[in-house]
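Hi everyone, sorry if this is the wrong subforum. Our group has a chain we'd like a structural model of before ordering constructs, and none of us has done structure prediction before. Sequence below.
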Amino acid sequence: MMIFDAIRESHDLQRDLCRKLTASRGDMAARELLFLQLKVELMAHAAAEERHLYVHLLMEDGGLDASRHALHEHHEVDELLDDLSVRNKKQEVWIATAKQLSFKVRHHLKEEESKFFQLAGRLLSETKKQQLARQYAKEIVRMRKHYAAEYQTVAVNPASGLLKPAKPAVDKPATRGSASAGAQLRGKSEPRRTR
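Answer:
Right subforum, don't worry. Here is the predicted structure as tokens:
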């Protein structure tokens, strides 16, 4: 596998999550989950791609301008993610910003695949492309885990390395204990008196 194939897998996932997020209506829990999955995927992808592709192209005179441009677009995506990281995702301004993010992401991915990959393909050796693919594949899973750990609703599938909704915490049904046992737990010798 070449580095570009590994990156395209994440690109396809990003496009799918953008489409689902901008089409989300009504169910705010689903919208929140889609947003967090997209946010984690975008951040993990950017970190892995910058470390295992951009940094190598920044060292080449022919890759300097294209890498700077791509890094700038990653920064713009980060700013939009910050704007969208608010509690209330019902407002029209939020969905308008989500559509702006989707457009920016899709533009960046298309530009990367149609221009940047061709440039990188000329600058990197075949051996280097394969080596970077292995490094990128490990790094994106590591970064998904890192960023997903910040949220309780998003996790990484151990088998595939892809993001998934986290299993909801199973609450134990409330049980009524004895007043004496409750008093002991609170460090008191006598149960609490009720009126």
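For your construct planning: The beta strands are 154-156, 163-165. The mean pLDDT is 88.
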